[in-house]
């Protein structure tokens, strides 16, 4: 019975990581600036998310809605953390290479684990830490041959680490909000903060705000549907049912998907070492899965309406 309860949220997390794994490909195919692409990602997604939120509230009238200033502040903070994560990560790419930035951003599960232990009171076992270590080692193998550890990349490397902190904060806020609110509620309200946040960053950085080709607009639309409405929503759902610490490890499946997608669609070479890294990531996720006890490591389950997502 416990495995059955774990399987669907776990599949949702892996599915969400798969959707986000296609984001680098779609961002590259879009011919708007990086922050502008993120702005359109949210802008195109918001109507669908709000329609879903309205449908959820109509079919489940008991679904909790934000009422207090604290509720709205938490939802807006979640959206702004997401904006800060992506914006700073894109900025880091101006000062360091993609491999360094990808590797350092993927240490976010470490920050989530620390926050989950001290803020959410989740129990962290040695087996879980071993799974975390394996998954991060797999990420290192995925990008390790292209990593350049020298002073010339220091500014970009620091920015990538800062982006990882903001991403970890975003994931912890999602877990905290899922104790009360359904997935569409969180996605719709937090998106109201993310969307204008990305617009401000795009305008301040001088991004091109218009795609010059139909294929560019198609890539932006696909990014919105696949990576945000699909990927980010599935992740938010999974975080409501599994511990934040474990959930963040499962997202390390994302760089595995990104490497595979780049190999298939962009014909970027995929080495034996990268393939081995993907297997190590899977081994780490599998090991971490075995540490989930009844009700999760913390023994706490989200308090939401029974039929709520």
Entry summary:
By secondary structure, this protein is mainly α. It is 73% helix and 0% strand.
List the helices and strands and how they pair.
Layout: H1 2-21, H2 23-29, H3 34-59, H4 69-92, H5 98-105, H6 108-118, H7 126-143, H8 154-178, H9 183-205, H10 214-239, H11 244-250, H12 253-265, H13 272-289
Helix pairs in contact: 1-10, 1-12, 2-10, 3-9, 3-10, 4-8, 4-9, 5-8, 6-8, 6-11, 7-13, 9-10, 12-13
Summarize the structure in words.
The structure is a single chain. The chain has one domain. 73% of the residues lie in helices and 0% in strands. The protein has helices at residues 2-21, 23-29, 34-59, 69-92, 98-105, 108-118, 126-143, 154-178, 183-205, 214-239, 244-250, 253-265, 272-289. Helix 6 packs antiparallel against helix 11 (244-250).
Notable traits:
mainly alpha; globular; single chain
What is the average per-residue confidence, as pLDDT, rounded to a whole number? 86
| Helix content class | over 70%
Work out the strand percent: under 5%
Oligomer state of the chains in this structure: single chain
Please report the total strand number as a whole number: 0
Rounded Rg = 19 Å
**What spatial form do the alpha-carbon principal axes imply?**
globular
In angstroms, what separates the terminal alpha carbons? 20 Å
Counted by DSSP, the helix tally is 13
The number of distinct structural domains comes to 1
Which sheet architecture does the biggest sheet show?
none
Judged by helices, strands and strand pairing, the structural class is: mainly alpha
Low-pLDDT stretches: 294-303
The arrangement of helices and strands along the chain is HHHHHHHHHHHHH
């Amino acid at each position: 019975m416990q495995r059955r309860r774990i399987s669907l949220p776990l599949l949702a997390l892996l599915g969400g990581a798969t959707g986000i794994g296609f984001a680098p490909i779609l961002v590259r195919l879009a011919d708007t600036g990086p922050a502008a692409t993120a702005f359109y990602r949210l802008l195109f997604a918001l109507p669908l998310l709000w329609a879903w939120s309205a449908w959820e509230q109509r079919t489940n009238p008991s679904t909790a809605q934000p009422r207090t200033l604290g509720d709205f502040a938490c939802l807006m903070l979640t959206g702004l953390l997401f904006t800060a994560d992506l914006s700073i990560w894109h900025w880091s790419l101006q000062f360091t290479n993609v491999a360094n930035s990808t590797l350092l951003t993927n240490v976010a599960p470490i920050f989530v684990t620390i926050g989950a232990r001290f803020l959410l009171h989740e129990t962290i076992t040695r087996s879980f830490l071993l799974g975390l270590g394996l998954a991060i080692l797999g990420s290192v193998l995925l990008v390790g041959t292209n990593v350049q550890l020298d002073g010339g990349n220091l500014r970009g490397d620091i920015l990538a680490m800062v982006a990882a902190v903001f991403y970890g904060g975003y994931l912890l806020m999602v877990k905290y909000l899922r104790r009360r609110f359904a997935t569409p509620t969180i996605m719709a309200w937090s998106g109201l903060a993310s969307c204008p946040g990305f617009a401000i960053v795009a305008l301040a950085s001088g991004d091109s705000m218009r795609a010059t080709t139909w294929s560019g607009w198609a890539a932006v639309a696909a990014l919105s549907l696949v990576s945000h409405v699909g990927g980010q929503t599935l992740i938010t759902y999974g975080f409501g049912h599994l511990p934040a610490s474990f959930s963040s490890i499962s997202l390390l499946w994302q760089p595995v998907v990104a490497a595979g997608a780049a190999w298939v669609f962009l014909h970027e070479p995929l080495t034996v070492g990268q393939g081995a890294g993907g297997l190590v990531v899977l081994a780490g996720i599998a090991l971490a899965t075995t540490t989930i006890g009844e009700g999760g490591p913390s023994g706490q389950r989200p308090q939401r309406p029974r039929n709520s997502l």
